[in-house]
Amino acid sequence: MKNTWEHKKLGEVITLEYGKPLLPDQRKSDGKFPVYGANGIKDRTDEFFYDKPSIIIGRKGSAGEINLTNEKFWPLDVTYFVVFDQKKYDRKFLFYLLSNLQLQKLAKGVKPGINRNDVYSIETEFPSLPEQQRIVYILDQSFAAIDQAIENTSINQENSKEIYEAFI
After folding, report:
1. Cα 112 versus chain centre, distance
2. pTM over 0.85, yes/no
3. Contact 136/90 with Cβ under 8 angstroms?
4. 24, 28, 45, 72 from 95: Cα distances, Å
5. Rounded distance, CA 90 to CA 116, Å?
6. Longest CA–CA separation in the chain, Å
7. CA 121 from chain center: how many Å?
8. Which end of the chain, N or C, is surrounded by fewer C-beta atoms within 10 Å?
């Protein structure tokens, strides 16, 4: 099956677009759209910069941090956002792939930053879109099971603590 996967550089599959500064008076805590910084949502706004779900990659500071967005958003200038052909590639597959590549290791400088050309030069394998979707389904199920196990462990710890305290 893997012999049908295509060997490509990331630059052949994705484009990393620069985010843009957002003025303080454009930020609203109850805004319609998330504002992404290098390591996640920093604020909200009633304006959006990009109108499709995407992947946000920290460019400066928390360089290499990756976030998945399911809605229109505003990426700040310390980020890249990923543009790709949605007919050929699954967004979550690309998210899992990029997360696995440990982009943080590409960060250089005093205020760590990632050069998009370094990301573009990474070579990897890409399956067909149906195979990408199958892989995403398996990973989503696995991560959901892990999350449930973590939640159950936390509940069990609390229950054990209550039993212990009741016994003493």
Report:
1. 18
2. no
3. yes
4. 30, 28, 24, 17
5. 20
6. 64
7. 19
8. C
Tokens of 8: 């490509």
Evaluate whether 145 touches 94 at the Cβ level (below 8 Å): no
* Nearest by Cα to 82 from 57, 63, 113, 51: 57
Number of residues assigned to the chain: 168
**Order of strands, edge to edge, in the sheet holding 66-69?**
14-18, 79-84, 54-58, 66-69
Q: What torsion do the CA atoms of 90, 137, 143, 54 make, to the nearest 10 degrees?
A: 20
- Under 8 Å CB-to-CB from 121, ≥6 apart: which residues? 9, 10, 11
Q: Do residues 66 and 79 make contact, with C-beta atoms less than 8 angstroms apart?
A: no
Q: What is the mean pLDDT of each run of 10 residues along the chain (168 residues)?
A: 85 96 93 94 95 95 92 96 96 96 89 92 95 92 71 73 71
Exposed, middle or buried: residue 19 (CB in 10 Å: 0-12, 13-18, 19+)?
buried
Edge to edge, what strands does the sheet with 33-37 contain? 40-45, 33-37, 74-75
